[in-house]
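Schema walk-through. Below, the input block comes first and the output block second. Nothing else is stored per chain. Lengths vary across the set, and this one has 497 residues.
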Amino acid sequence: MSKKIAIIGSGFSSLSASCYLAQLGYEVTIYEKNSTVGGRARQLIKEGFTFDIGPSWYWMPDVFESFFNDFGKTASDFYTLEKLNPAYKVFFEDRKEIKIEDTLEKIYQAFEAEEKGSSHKLKKFIKTAQDNYDIAIKNLVYRPGVSPLELVTKETIQRLGQFFSTISREVRKEFKNQKLIKILEFPVLFLGAKPSNTPAFYSFMNYADFGLGTWHPKGGMYQVILGMEKLAKSLGVFIHTNAVVEKINVEKGRTNGLIVNSEEISADIVLCGADYHHSETLLDAKYRQYSEAYWENKTFAPSSLLFYVGFRKKLKNVNHHNLFFDTDFDAHAKDIYDDPKWPEEPLFYANFTSLTDPSTAPEGHENGFFLIPLAPGIEDTEELRETYFDKIITRFEDLTDQNVKNNIIFKESFCVKDFIKEYNSYKGNAYGMANTLLQTAFLRPKLKSKKVQNLFFTGQLTVPGPGVPPSLISGKLVAGLIEAQFNKVKELKFITS
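--- output ---
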């Protein structure tokens, strides 16, 4: 008889793990507290507008492809991808705009136009970034974080200095132009930490940006979730929504199931794909691996203030993705990590999927997604949300030379309180624990509980780290650990059809 696995949560990592485990022959059931699958990747559909509530960037397409290939499928079996050109536009304080286009050659030209000689430096930088990407994907990110020896390979030893230098230091060695520095430091923000605290090895994110490009699944990022849900169900995974997990049951040091909506659910294995901190609060205190002091001392990725806005007209002078770096980057970062408070003049990001995907807004209209990074755990009130919407929309009008305030049909917001309420997110963080040097690989919370037998964890607070592609990988890694424990295999293999 196959072993029963109960999975808490239905985000990218949970859906990924469920597919691998079902393919391996386990009986897998997912319990999701919200009314739809996807965890933080959900949709808002209102008055003909469609918004991705959570993740909005599709990077590292090879990781998505690798996931579906493991089941004899391709991403195109489930959704249609379009490579964006430009990938994104960056706005600066002097009203200068720089577009990052869809090929390396075009990006080299954009850099050269901004700073003479910078294209040659960028080629060298991207070559290192690509080498790091190859090493990360082939040798590092698919390792489960159980031993420091996982980081020790011939290739990583040769790059040891990159783990003790930082992205900021390496970028500023070569580039002096502040605009180009900001563009090169931007990708590591997906890892949740300041460039000055992120190991230089993570320049592989620059290759993910410039080398692999930015993509859009037609219909939005939620199409990826729907594709994974379809795959999971085809493999026999059961999914229950509106299923609130109240407790992880433990008997004699071994989990034997859950209490869901006040009902006892038996399981041989429990896999937590919800927020790691929250998942441990579902255990009696003696079974928790990490204390409140442990979590308090960790560096978390930012929270966010998000706005979903329906406009009754088409917008101009913007692209699908837009970065507004027209204020002090370092001052905003300090307000997130060093002295947590609401920033005076925040940087922000905006996307308008309806520019490239008309299906996401009514004809002649535009959908807008605005994001301000914030320190997790700070005060969150409706008054503050309104104040900051007014700040960014005023700057948006000025920098894009158009009036939009009077053309807003509706606006909805999502902030710290909502991340806590909807996702049980620690301090309302938006995407997990930052990848700093002391929070990398084996130094992150473990995939397997050391205190409770048959209890496992997955997601962006464990390995490999924050972001959608790492979450897909995290699901595969934890499936491998489970299979290793119960079937004594050394390497996870899959039957594809």
